[in-house]
Amino acid sequence: MKTYSQEELKALTTPEAKTLCEDIRRYLVDQVMSTGGHLASNLGIVEVSLGLLRVFNLPDDHVLYDTGHQSYVHKILTGRAQAFSALRTYGGISGFPKRSESEFDSFGAGHSGTAVSAALGFSRARALQNPKDHSQHTVAVLGDGALTCGMVYEALNNIRPSDNLIIILNDNDMSISKSVGRLSRYLSKVRKSKRYLSMKVKSHHVLDRIPLVGAGIERGLSRMKRSLKSIVYRSNLFEQLGIYYLGPANGNNLEEVERLLIEARRHRGPVLVHFITKKGCGYAPAEEDPGRYHSVSASAGECVTFSEKFGETLCELASADDKVVAITAAMESGTGLSAFHSRFPKRFYDVGISEEHGMTFAAGLSAGGVKPVFAVYSTFFQRAYDQLFHDLSLQNLGAVVALDRAGFADTDGPTHHGLFDVSLTLGLPGVEVYSPATHRELCRTLRAAVKDFDTATTVLRYPKGSEKAEIVRRFPCNGNVERWDSGQNARVLILTYGRITEQALLAADRLKAVGVECTVVKILKLKPFDREALAHVLRDDVFDLCYCLEEGILSGGFFEGLVLRLSAEERLIANRFSIRAVEDSFVPHGKYAELISHTKLDATSVSREIASLL
Amino acid sequence: MKTYSQEELKALTTPEAKTLCEDIRRYLVDQVMSTGGHLASNLGIVEVSLGLLRVFNLPDDHVLYDTGHQSYVHKILTGRAQAFSALRTYGGISGFPKRSESEFDSFGAGHSGTAVSAALGFSRARALQNPKDHSQHTVAVLGDGALTCGMVYEALNNIRPSDNLIIILNDNDMSISKSVGRLSRYLSKVRKSKRYLSMKVKSHHVLDRIPLVGAGIERGLSRMKRSLKSIVYRSNLFEQLGIYYLGPANGNNLEEVERLLIEARRHRGPVLVHFITKKGCGYAPAEEDPGRYHSVSASAGECVTFSEKFGETLCELASADDKVVAITAAMESGTGLSAFHSRFPKRFYDVGISEEHGMTFAAGLSAGGVKPVFAVYSTFFQRAYDQLFHDLSLQNLGAVVALDRAGFADTDGPTHHGLFDVSLTLGLPGVEVYSPATHRELCRTLRAAVKDFDTATTVLRYPKGSEKAEIVRRFPCNGNVERWDSGQNARVLILTYGRITEQALLAADRLKAVGVECTVVKILKLKPFDREALAHVLRDDVFDLCYCLEEGILSGGFFEGLVLRLSAEERLIANRFSIRAVEDSFVPHGKYAELISHTKLDATSVSREIASLL
């Protein structure tokens, strides 16, 4: 794929630009099928991304891709086509916009719904610094899924008639699973009604010239005109928020895209351009099954995952207990809840990209007498910390919060790693925290949490992917604290929990080979900590070194608090303590093996560090 | 004030009920002027609260007061009139709804925007358990300010036509400072236009019978009817979300209130009742200046507060530097930004109750080249943790996050204490955290943060109220780490930070009186920790005991990590370490002195504990 300069892109004739779109599609399919990544949404946004680069002047104009998984075409066309073979690989380019990667990535993303807020910041900053210069533009590109996210609405509510801000609504009727809620139905009506679309095209130049923003809104007939427009477009929702509305238009027709972008560029004040695009556009398999091609995995299919085990167990529990209900925030498939949805449609709630609402909704369900289980990725849970605090923990309400993707989230990188959930949840009074390391542990803790559903919120955190065979092989996985010894004369105690236990075991093997025997203790229940169970498995042993291994941030993590308590005890379990966790920095994207090596949590680093400490 | 049973309230004739409203108003003014608390909003909601109790069957029907500061009348009328003299006092009733306080408080509150989510939970839980029983109702009572909060929108978007849910919009055109954003202007139009109101009353029974929810929406003329209604009511926003709209009506007219509540109760499916109420209604001083009577303080006026010093310093900085801008989330006055707003209106942004948006907006402003300072209460910051993580910290963007009300927030209680911010912010890579203990330190750190506004987000956390004289007297407050000795032969080192330093000093005085000399070290910069400055002030001293005192949660707090590092060092600064912080439980409401005593952080407890440890 050729690398184009911005000038070259602008100089292309429309037929040449259309040919480029086809080239990009082919390139995307080739690359992403081999590297893995988000395919369908990027195929759908080819014309919009190219149009933005041809109509606006990047990087002086700022284009912000919300969530950012649909920024591949933007990356290809802003000097990163050659880098694409290293997409989402360790040291390679990110699957999301990243300021440090390119001046064309105005604002990083990964979590949904941030682009309008940030774009408003850019726009206001520019207005303050150059109040008379209207030549620069700020564009936020949103998927329709982002409109389920409350932050977007907070931002829309803050837009003033004087804000120069362009919002592109890339409406492909499918966020990650499917869009939920009233707004989605509303957009769907706009889309499905061909009549509105054709009326729109015909009446475009007449109706769109009616002044609707600022003073014009108050004038004479404007109310009647608004109502007329509302009948044509059904776009009141945006216009009631004072945002000039353009569309809907076919976002896979380059001429139409560029025509509307030019019009949006000319407009003073906030404007929303509604493009309807086809997810997977131009690649038949992805067009037919965009869900399957939403995110393509480069690796071979893994064994059963934690997510699947979670979903399976929850189905069992739900068939035995009418009160069990499941919540997801737009991650039905990712959290393993598809089967639950099919089997118990009335007890399944996909709340959209609304983690905050999801958590408080769970609290309301619990107060109302049923048993909510909210499955959410660890990183997205960060959005609902206050709701866990204020609505569940503070009220001692029973609920299960299942944190999927706890620990490294591989190739998705720093916006998606789940490294903070332990430090966030340990501080919350009354909340119980478990970190299952095997499917068996997950199933058991989930069953117990649902059975003893009383006055405590239980957090279950488990990683992406499948259990590690080494852990299954060496631990029966039937207690809060378990022990495995590499020999009779262990000098070193390795304390750990969750998936990284595998590396502790492998490190013990390496150390055994050089004559150092270790005891590995795996902890399941992080809070409240089961001190008795630890004393029981440790018997009266005292070690030279207690080495703690944690796949999570050091500060406020599990071992900071635990080691402090253990080292303050009368009878020390070890002469020395040492913690290896994720230090005070963000971890890049890459394969799990690369990331544990990057953070020195892998068996090689661990065994070396232990040897050096002895 | 008499205690009424629910039956007695229902049995009152309308004239009797109106008399009761007057009695309640007098009682509220008498009580709240002496106990302190929220006055104006409660005076405004008397008829609505009484109407809800007369029309619905509590506690079988659930009424959820959003945010909850306007639940006083509800409390008075649900068996807590006698308890009112102890409102917001230690051991007395809470200023917010609390499940543990009364079965009539269906759901606790304190942070805005949670009631619709929770009410939806109650409603769905009921529908699951008793699908055929429509006799029970769930009511969420929202102020107009809550409509600036994204969570509410997430919840509204999740409401289905089949949900039995009543939302009361208590619209008094004034959330805490003033409502912001487009929606507020939209509501204001509805309110101000008398014509709409009178048309509404006349056409009420005709127009409101037009079916708008569910299948009806698709039928023949419904589009035209909707447009007609939109001209009359301008209520499209709610109806587009599939919610049947009733109002606007005078919420201080008991007959009108009860008529609409009865209609809402009869309606199947989601319904929003829009009441216009007068903040301070019935008490002339509060009607004239509702802002002043929003929250009445029982204590005598304090000296200059941290918030005021913050605002003052920020004004200075803004006059010297065009790039300085300020953000608040509906807390202009509370965060001391009123003068800034007057002096720099173009550089002041009140984003409404939108902490999430506020933080990402700050990130956008920073990326756009200006210098955002976001002032937010510590407890409300919990809502924007993910945005600090994802948009500021991860991108290394410069910003100042000023966390007001860090530490105990007195009589407001557990929903308002700022005890978690240190544990939340310490884990974030690249974020710098300061905890000024005096006005001078606040001003100095704020100036430095704005001056060196480069690639790091600076968090400044400071308490409610004023600086403590003891701290000012004994520390010059000019370094990251400072030392004060009660004598030449200190055996005990007390490490501490922030306001609680006062108690450390007073404890040292008490210990001195019994012959134990102490060194008190106050830390200003929590992250990155200034190890050299500590070494410098400690010289080569070694203590018997290092006692750490923290006005914040223990788990993940400042001292857990610090003590671990200090006790792992080659040359220990003390033979023993001990941490006193807020243990794993929520702290109730009460005066500061009561709360530090409750948590054993007061000088008496500290000196006793130190003596016992020696």
How are the SSEs placed, and which strands pair?
The structure is a homodimer of 614-residue chains.
Chain A: H1 6-11, H2 14-35, E1 37-38, H3 40-44, H4 46-55, E2 62-65, H5 72-80, H6 115-129, E3 138-143, H7 150-158, E4 166-171, H8 181-192, H9 194-207, H10 222-233, H11 236-240, E5 244-250, H12 254-266, E6 271-276, H13 284-288, E7 295-296, H14 306-320, E8 324-328, H15 338-343, E9 348-350, H16 355-367, E10 371-377, H17 378-381, H18 385-393, E11 399-404, H19 421-426, E12 432-434, H20 439-451, E13 457-461, H21 469-474, E14 481-485, E15 492-497, H22 501-513, E16 518-523, E17 525-527, H23 531-538, E18 543-553, H24 558-567, E19 574-582, H25 592-598, H26 603-613
Describe the structure in your own words:
Two copies of one chain form a homodimer. Chain A is of the alpha/beta class. Chain A has three domains: 285 residues, Rossmann fold (3-Layer(aba) Sandwich), CATH 3.40.50.970; 156 residues, 3-Layer(aba) Sandwich (Rossmann fold), CATH 3.40.50.970; 138 residues, Rossmann fold (3-Layer(aba) Sandwich), CATH 3.40.50.920. Helices cover 42% and strands 17% of the residues of chain A. Chain A contains 26 helices and 19 strands. In chain A, α4 packs across α12, α6 runs parallel beside α7 and α14 packs parallel to α20.
Summarize the structure.
The structure is a homodimer of 614-residue chains. With 614 residues, the first copy, chain A, is α/β, with parallel strands linked by helices.
Beta strands of chain A, count: 19
Fourth CATH level, the homologous superfamily of the largest domain in chain A:
Thiamin diphosphate (ThDP)-binding fold, Pyr/PP domains
Assembly type? homodimer
> What percent of the residues of chain A sit in helical stretches (DSSP H or I)?
40-55%
| CATH fold name of the largest domain in chain A | Rossmann fold
**What is the CATH class designation of the largest domain in chain A?**
Alpha Beta
